[in-house]
Amino acid sequence: MSSTFRMPGKKGLVLAAAAGLGLPLAVAAPALSHGYTTSPPSRSSLCNTGQVQNCGAVQWDPQSIEGPKGFPQAGPADGKICAAGDSRWAPLDDPRGGQWPAARLNSGQSFTFTWKLTAAHATTSFRYFITRNGWNPAQPLTRAALEPQPFLTQNYDGRQPPSNASHPGRLPAKQGRHLILAVWDIADTGNAFYLCSDVTFG
Q1: Whether 69 contacts 166, CB under 8 Å
Q2: What is the pLDDT of residue 33?
Q3: Which CATH superfamily groups domain 34-201?
């Protein structure tokens, strides 16, 4: 890793029976990778632990914030980045007046980002972006609100990360309230995971 900074269920039995009868099958490939940031805690993590209420379905599914990869040139539309462009997770895009609980960090300090991966997968990289000075925390996240380059990248070159992935690095020099966007790029699908974490630099 390099760094720049059982038994078949009913569905399986039905498919097997259909195959035995020579019937055509159309089976969607399952999403095999899921995960979310735990330090600093992502919005989906805060919903899962009950620290934030009225989150909708993400409360029970914090690891599934998945959308098209290619960020920032492609990927979720502006204003829908924290939900990865998926309407099921729309409460994550709501800035709540800039009042999401924010983890306290120190400007420029060494810091280790951690993830809980419920299903790991071949990985291209994990990238970490941060908002620009003067961004508006009361507005949904847009590309224009972010610094154009990630301040930390962990390259995996197609390898699979551990279930408790950690990425040490150095935080940028910032003051006040900011948002960190973590992007987990999957190597062998067209998707990535998008996790927004609210932070405050002392």
Answers
A1: no
A2: 58
A3: chitin-binding protein cbp21 (2.70.50.50)
Task: Give the chain's length.
Answer: 202
Per-residue pLDDT at 120:
83
Main-chain phi, psi angles of 181, to 5 degrees:
-105, 120
Report the pLDDT value the prediction gives residue 124, as an integer from 0 to 100.
97
Q: Tell me the C-alpha distance between 95 and 88, whole Å.
A: 16
**If we measure between CA atoms, which residue out of 131, 139, 141 comes closest to residue 179?**
131
103, 178, 169, 101: which is closest to 146 by C-alpha? 178
What pLDDT is recorded for position 160? 95
Residue 97: DSSP 8-state: G
- Residue boundaries of the structural domains of the chain: 34-201
**Residue ranges of the chain with per-residue pLDDT less than 50:** 1-32
138 phi, psi to nearest 5 deg: -90, 5
- The pLDDT, as a whole number, for residue 119 is 84
